[in-house]
Amino acid sequence: MSETLPSEAQPAPPTAAEPGRDDRNISGVPIRLDGVTKRYPGQDVPAVDDVTLEIAAGETVMFVGPSGCGKTTLLKMINRLIEPTGGRIHLGDEDVTDQDPDRLRRRIGYVIQAGGLFPHMTVATNIGLVPKMLKWDDARVAARVDELLDLVGLDPDQYRDRYPRELSGGQQQRVGVARALAADPPVLLMDEPFGAVDPITRQRLQDELIRIQEELGKTIVFVTHDFDEAVKLGDRIVVFDVGARVVQYDTPERILADPAEEYVADFVGAGATLKQLTLTRVGDVDLLQPTTATVGSDAAAAVAAAQAAGDDYVVVLDRRGRPISWPTLAELTRSPTIPDTVDERLPVVGMRSTLNDALDTMLAASQGGVVVTGRRESLAGVMAVETVMAAIQRTRSGAAG
Amino acid sequence: MTASTGVRPDGAPDDTAPEPATQAADERAAASGAGGWRALVWQPVMLAAAVLAFVVWRLAADLSETESRQLGWSALSRSIVEHLQLTAVSAVIVLVIAIPLGVLLTRGAMRRFSPLIIGVANTGQAAPAIGLLVLLAAWVGFGFRTAVIGLVVYAALPVLRNTIVGIQGVDARLVEAGRGMGMSALAVLLRVELPLAVPVLLAGVRTALVLLVGTATLATFINGGGLGVLITTGINLSLDALLISGAVLVALLALAIDWLGRVVEHVARPRGL
């Protein structure tokens, strides 16, 4: 945070990858916008005015700005749902400005709010639409559908034949992401996809997206009005002003530490100390290792182990190592074996969640800590509210010093 | 909260239940589906009872010579067949004209003409059907063909309007999602817009059919045949049995067509809605 580079209003020179991320698998291609303009007839001011922007392959770039600033228009010009009135658009080495839009769009995943799923088609049909258009054979489409459902964390056998109506908002959104990824497009455009779900679900979807992106390395352009979301998900953030003027294009850390203009500082918000919580991931802090017990094992032994370790609760794991509840010792002594009841209100975050998410989850559950899960939802540890407080203290003193 | 770790669970209300599959919604849908079927079963049962009552009355009634000639089984079935022909031919023509026209009026630049066309269709329906038929007869000549033309003009509106409304009622974001994933405009129309418009569109078709059955009784005034013959004869000669038989049969026919329409709507309604 202490770097004092001159603030840049112009796009930062895109580097292929951040240091330390060279081992990442990248399947995306760079996007280059060259003087892109959209002028609607009868309006004096262009909606998007001469935007030049380079997005590196495999990066997640967040478009933020006030409503009406043209960020969505700019996004939709990349897949030409809105035809630019000027400028060129390049995908990789290819100028796609004059390409047949339907064929172009089959190479660009597109995710909108609530998934935009077709209600009269099953989950499998929805996901298989683009591969079918690309004339894949049925067996290949079916295999791809199952693979994608797995990728977004939905059991194919359970969800393949459901209709969107039979899914929760979060599940619909997952299917929406799966559908956009169906034909393995190098570029993914996301237009406020998580705007319509509740905060806890949104946080899980964000974690999932980070995980998927780490696996796939697509080039993602993501429009949001939520700056926290931008900080959490983005490798870089573009802050727009009216007419899609690029005010700052930089990493979240640099935008928070060194806003280019008063405008950005205002947009980022005065609570920038707390915003820093969005920069720290749960996986980056030290987690407590609680006493654990597996369902069906001897309760007395678990109680003894917890007492020896000085804990007054035990995290119960199911047979696949996933935490399902965290009873107190008093609760445990009532039964001879560890019960298999699943605690629906167990606060859980992933390793990729931010400290901000963790704090939100604690507050929502009125609890002083959260259970942290790692790979395949297995237990990674427990984080206490004190850890979050310590992080706030550190940023405070860092800002003061 | 105990001091040692500060992370013990307490009895907080449940806010973090993991996304539950909407089982409740399933059950509701299943229930409403069953309710729908129940209504669909009742209507033909009542109809059958009414038809049976008519047949019993016809066999037992003390009829004059003219009445029994008109209500003889062969004359009666000819009237019914004529009536159904008027209805069916007009309906087919209405569907062939109004649905494509309605679709066209929701496409791009044609959209701005839709108020105009709807206005014209509204006028067609607001004009008294009898006046329309007589004027047409004076212009085109008497007979079955003229009756069909008049009926088509009269019944086109509900189909046209419901086609337009049904397609306009499709969530614009779904159309955009379809285009955004690379479906052509035609593919979006055929695979997204029309299937989703089916419930509204078919309701319009059913309305048109019921209107046609009722209005076809007027065809008799321009020599178009149908069950209207019974009614006019009944009025002219003060033969109440004829008049009432005609009216009852038209009503039963309309109800039967309405039922058929509902069955089709039920079957054709896309799953998942």
UniProtKB/TrEMBL annotation, chain A:
UniProt EC number: 7.6.2.9
Region described as Disordered: 1-27
Repeat listed as a keyword: yes
Classification via SMART domains: AAA
Compositionally biased tracts (Low complexity): 1-10
NCBIfam families given in the database record: proV (TIGR01186)
Domain of life: Bacteria
GO cellular component: membrane
Stretches of the chain forming a coiled coil according to its record: none
Pfam families: ABC_tran
UniProt domain ABC transporter: residue ranges: 31-268
EC primary class: translocase
GO molecular function: ABC-type quaternary ammonium compound transporting activity; ATP binding; ATP hydrolysis activity
Protein name as it appears in the record: ABC-type quaternary amine transporter
Record-linked PROSITE patterns: ABC_TRANSPORTER_1, ABC_TRANSPORTER_2
Family: Belongs to the ABC transporter superfamily.
Any GO BP: glycine betaine transport
Entry keyword annotation includes Transport: yes
InterPro entries recorded: AAA+_ATPase, ABC_transporter-like_ATP-bd, ABC_transporter-like_CS, CBS_dom_sf, Gly-betaine_transp_ATP-bd, P-loop_NTPase
Keyword terms: ATP-binding, Nucleotide-binding, Repeat, Transport
UniProtKB/TrEMBL annotation, chain B:
Transmembrane regions: 40-60, 80-105, 126-157, 177-202, 209-235, 241-261
Segments of this protein annotated with the region Disordered: 1-28
Subcellular location: Cell membrane; Membrane
Topology in the lipid bilayer: Multi-pass membrane protein
Protein keywords: Membrane, Transmembrane, Transmembrane helix, Transport
CDD domains given in the database record: TM_PBP2 (cd06261)
One GO term of the biological process aspect: glycine betaine transport
Family of the protein in this entry: Belongs to the binding-protein-dependent transport system permease family.
Protein name (record): Osmoprotectant transport system permease protein
Originating organism: Blastococcus tunisiensis
Lineage: Bacteria, Bacillati, Actinomycetota, Actinomycetes, Geodermatophilales
